[in-house]
Design goal:
Elements lengths: L2 E2 L3 E2 L2 H4 L3 E4 L7 E3 L4 E3 L12 E8 L7 E8 L5 E5 L5 E6 L10 E4 L5 E4 L4 E2 L3 E2 L5 E8 L6 E11 L3
Parallel strand pairs: 1-15, 2-10
Antiparallel strand pairs: 3-11, 4-5, 6-14, 7-15, 8-11, 8-14, 9-10, 9-12, 9-13
Length: 162
């Protein structure tokens, strides 16, 4: 039997234990390019061990709500930043660490123009776009060694449609 988690809007405060919310809200930190571009400076904490930052393009198959899952993952050697290449919202699933195992997951729905950066070691769901195309630029660790741990919950969770 599936357990249900209700998605919430993605806010920097609610997401802070898991990572950073990137967006262009508020007044830019400074104006650049002859005053034609607002720079919202240093919005994510990139954190890597034994490697370097790399930028990849992910093309994920869209999912629909209700969405059922039992798999989460984490990257012990580096943060991971999902930057959508469209303005479509996507689903973000995270879970607290409870003794090297994920606890009860939480679900967030992004607003147009939001991106997320998962802190190093944060349990999170797979990339889950809700519409096509599911194109994302992903900034994460490139380097030797295994930087992926997966966990399957004994019973699935379902995120209902809002």
């Amino acid at each position: 039997m599936s357990r249900q988690i209700t998605p919430r809007p993605l806010t920097p405060r609610d997401f802070a234990p898991y990572g950073d919310v990137l967006d262009a809200s508020g007044v830019p930190d400074r104006m650049i390019n002859q005053g034609l571009c607002g720079r919202h400076h240093d919005r994510a904490r990139l954190d890597f061990t034994g490697g370097r930052a790399g930028v990849s393009i992910f093309d994920a198959r869209p999912r629909a709500l209700p969405y059922t899952f039992d798999l989460v993952e984490r990257h012990p050697d580096g943060s991971q930043c999902f930057l959508p290449m469209t303005l479509a919202p996507f689903l973000v699933i995270v879970a607290p660490d409870e003794g090297d195992r994920p606890g009860t997951p939480r679900a967030f729905l992004t607003a147009p123009g939001q991106a997320v950066n998962f802190h190093r070691g944060t349990w999170h769901g797979v990339l889950t776009p809700l519409s096509a195309p599911g194109l994302f630029a992903v900034v994460d660790r490139i380097g030797p060694g295994a930087n992926l741990e997966e966990f399957r919950y004994p019973a699935p969770y379902t995120v209902p449609a809002p």
